[in-house]
Amino acid sequence: MLNVGLIGLGKMGKYHLNLYSDISDVKLMGICDANPDLVNELSEKTGVQGYTNYKEMFPYVDAVTIAAPTRFHYEIAKDCLLAGKHLLVEKPITTNYDHARELFDIAISKNLVLHIGHVERFNGAVQEIRKITENPRFVETKRVAQFNPNFKADSIVLDLMIHDIDIVLNLIGSPVKAIQAVGSKVHTDLADFASVNIAFENDAVANLYVSRMSQIKERFMTVYEDNALYKLDFTTQDINIYRQGQTQQTFSEKELRYKNEFIQERLFVYKENPLKSEIMHFINCVTGKTKRTVTVEHDLLSLNVALKTDELLRKGIFGQVEL
Questions:
Q1: Number of helices (H) and strands (E), helices first, in the chain?
Q2: Is 300 exposed, middle or buried (0-12, 13-18, 19+ CB in 10 A)?
Q3: Radius of gyration (Cα) for the chain, nearest Å?
Q4: Per the structure, how many domains does the chain have?
Q5: Confidence of residue 301 (pLDDT cuts 50, 70, 90)
Q6: Does residue 181 share a domain with residue 165?
């Protein structure tokens, strides 16, 4: 039985709390938040011991999930690792590359699992498209949502676009050559929508669009290869594939006609709750049943690209940066 603690009881923390309650071979030994009223409310509701000081949980847990605000991740994660606890940290791990590198170094030195919560990695459609694509040449992503004033201090790149950055880097699998970014402020002091181009050394290109100004929620990705186009819906976990069919050409004295056909396929995707799949993967890594799906270097690259992109947008002008 793996004993687990949960730090942070906001929106994401509550998702983790609900899922841990349904997973066998895991016992949630403690929940923690800086808000004592919230801790008491959820502790009474779930029967799990509540804390406002996360260090008081350490004697009772083997692993910890951190779903606190990002600005607290580094301090909490470092304390947990130094106490010998395996960690699942919601993305982004930190807003500082050197801090992230330090945390991974500590985890490696202590033989601990440090997993970053990139939940879209465990989306069934994302896992499937990695298997069927061979040489992506151009990738487009669109991730838009309604404005939420509770998150107005958060970077749109580190909050939303980092999902797509992580997926694209893994899918294309080539070193990044350059990043271009443009965005604009509307509701906040940070960019509220942005368009980002990432150029890769193998000449592939990705265009990522993100917005928190939409009236509807949309999350899509389109992958272009030489002979196929793949459209992925992150929400429904569906994939549609379009391939070139026959081209017919007819002549007459008065006209010339072309007829292009395409073949459409809808791929069967095994659909599971991505967050539950991610938690199960973390647990299996801790218990030695499986190994992490990505390397430390990939985790750090995703963060670095996100931070560089965010830096460009904060400058408020169209700009480019090389890695």
A1: 9, 15
A2: middle
A3: 22
A4: 2
A5: very high
A6: yes
